[in-house]
Design goal:
By secondary structure, this protein is an alpha+beta fold. It is built from two helices and three strands; from the N terminus they run H-E-E-E-H. A three-stranded antiparallel beta sheet has the order 1-2-3. The termini are far apart.
């Protein structure tokens, strides 16, 4: 019998409020991916690191599939996400 487990997450108020990021940098080696998320104010050349997430390749691939699924659901509901050429 396959039962879904309900996951409950707890965090501080600081973590719960989240961070805004408009730039990301991703690096990797054989054992991990490092994703840096930062905020770079418009017209500025210096930004601030908001968060660094480190994941194993297999966990990141699962995250990729989950993110892709959610993007498809979002676009079905709200329309295609337009991205600007940088």
């Amino acid at each position: 019998m396959n039962e879904e487990k309900k996951i409950q997450l707890q965090g501080s108020n600081e973590i719960a409020k989240g961070n805004f990021s408009n730039i990301s940098i991703i690096n990797h080696d054989a054992s991990s991916f490092v994703m840096d998320f930062a905020y770079l104010p418009p017209g500025m050349t210096k930004g601030s690191l908001s968060s660094r997430i480190i994941m194993t390749p297999s966990d990141l691939k699962q995250f990729y599939f989950t993110l892709n699924d959610n993007i498809q659901k979002y676009e079905k509901r709200f329309g295609k996400i337009q991205i600007s050429k940088q």
